[in-house]
Amino acid sequence: MVFTNPTGGYLSYRTVYDCFKRIVEKLGFPEMRFHDLRHTYATSSLNYGDDIKTLQENLGHSSASFTLDTYGHVSNQMKKYSADRLEQYIQRLNTMEPPNTLQGKK
Fold first, then answer.
1. Who contacts 81 (Cβ-Cβ below 8 Å, separation ≥6)?
2. CB burial class (10 A; 0-12, 13-18, 19+) of residue 60?
3. Cα dihedral sign, 38-43-48-49
4. pLDDT digits (tens, 9 = 90+) for 9-59
5. Which residues pair with 54 in a beta bridge?
6. Is 10 strand, coil or helix?
7. Residue 60: left if φ>0, alpha if ψ -120 to 50, beta else—which one?
8. Which of 19, 44, 64, 104 is close enough to 56 for a disulfide, judged by CB 3.0 to 4.6 Å?
9. What's the pLDDT score for residue 77?
10. In the chain, which ranges are continuous DSSP H helix?
11. What is the pTM of this model?
12. Nearest partner of 72 among 88, 56, 96, judged by Cα
């Protein structure tokens, strides 16, 4: 990741790091590394339904399997979303009319 100043010059790692640390402290977040933002982005993307191939490309990984191996752990929130989707599917099935097995007969 590259950060620039208003004239387009590169900001040093130390400048970005120090600014990040001040922001984290001001917001009252627990101690974290700058790289933790990448992990937060990846797991949040998966939690909210982004497909693995898009996430792989966004992160610059060479394969979707690497992305899954690194960020694909299942969270409680992901389990709940999955269960909710299944429940909605079952509810839709319950409201459908059963197929007419005697088609053409009166």
1. 47, 49
2. exposed
3. positive
4. 999 999 999 999 999 999 999 999 988 999 989 988 988 888 999 999 999
5. none
6. strand
7. left
8. 64
9. 75
10. 13-27, 36-47, 52-59, 64-71, 76-95
11. 0.61
12. 56
